Amino acid sequence: MKNILELSKEELISYFQKIGQPRFRQVQVWNWLYQKGKLDFFEMSNIPKIIRERLARDFVIDLPKIYTVQKSKDGTTKFALSLHDENIIETVLIPEGTHYTQCLSSQVGCPLGCTFCSTGKMGFVRNLSCGEIIGQILVAKSYLKDTKDKLKIRNLVFMGMGEPLLNWENVKKAIYILRDKQAFDFSYRHTTISTVGIPKPLQEFAEKDLGSIAISLHAPTQELREKIMPKAASIVSLNDLIELLKNIPLRNRQRITIEYILIKGINDSLDHARQLNRVLSHIKCKINLIAFNPGEDIEYEAPDEKSISEFEKYLRDKGQITTLRKSKGQDINAACGQLRAKIL
């Protein structure tokens, strides 16, 4: 039977029309699933019993299963989730004071193999389905309810395992459900996609105003990007990526986030900062610096605090909006670049 979490709004409306039911049944089902978190058709009390029985015959509500839960000393929670085919993915809840940000995976592993990323070391297994993507949120919300954690999930970031724009059709379908007011109702400001810059889907994401954009840049020259991100650099050159970003449609106060992992002796010098400033000089952006997080079988190191501070100061002095992201969950391998599903 088909997992009902895989159905778009239009597909669910079409299903109800085929069985002679009005369109508003779709709203009722989505309300129970995504707003109330009820994962049993027979608990959907405002739907006639005969329709609930039909739903139970035609569909399942299939979520990823929690395999392990790890809690960091800083409050970050990492879930290893088992999928129907026994593949494992990871998703992370990051506490942000009054709420959580959830870091979502879009693939099992990643095909890009960036040299500083533990997920890249896994290689690529397969894309996640729409239901497996939104299932991560339902699992996390259920966990928070069961543990009586009063913080809510306010932000979603596609920064987990995989390159989301290489699984664009499934990610796009999931984002429409995440953004829909009858479902999860996350706003564009609270939905961010992180990508190395896959041109066609990135343009579509921006033109359809589906959320905020974060670009995994990590190098200010094509030559260096080819060294540390060879597959990403071969998909789109740095010059072409920058030209694309110059013309990306943005809202009035919206900026593109440029993600830049600082790696000791690789991309952390003041010369690199000068090159980065020059490359980004005509883009409406903010720069998010991240000190490298250690990973198994990865020989890179993080720069010392002095080097990081000097890099940040140079960009600020040049008028760049620059922040240094504090890594959370590093002690449980839940920080940026550390997700790997080591269970496998």
Known CATH architecture of the largest domain: Alpha-Beta Barrel
Largest sheet: 10 strands, mixed
- CATH fold category name of the largest domain: TIM Barrel
- Name the poorly predicted regions: none
Write the SSE topology.
Elements: E1 2-3, H1 9-18, H2 24-35, H3 49-58, E2 59-60, E3 65-71, E4 77-82, E5 88-95, E6 99-103, E7 107-109, H4 118-122, E8 124-127, H5 130-146, E9 152-158, H6 168-179, E10 191-195, H7 199-207, E11 212-216, H8 222-228, H9 230-235, H10 238-246, E12 256-262, H11 270-279, E13 285-291, H12 305-317, E14 322-325
Summary?
The protein has 12 helices and 14 strands.
Report on this model:
The protein is α/β, with parallel strands linked by helices and 344 residues long. The protein folds into two domains: 2-60, DNA polymerase, domain 1; 65-332, Aldolase class I (TIM Barrel, Alpha-Beta Barrel), CATH 3.20.20.70. Helix content is 35%, strand content 21%. The chain has twelve helices and 14 strands. It has a ten-stranded mixed β-sheet, covered by helices on one side. A two-stranded parallel ribbon has the order 1-2. Helix 12 links the parallel strand 13 (285-291) and strand 14. Helix 5 (130-146) packs across helix 6 and helix 11 runs parallel beside helix 12. It is elongated, with a radius of gyration of 21 Å. The model has no long low-confidence stretch (mean pLDDT 93).
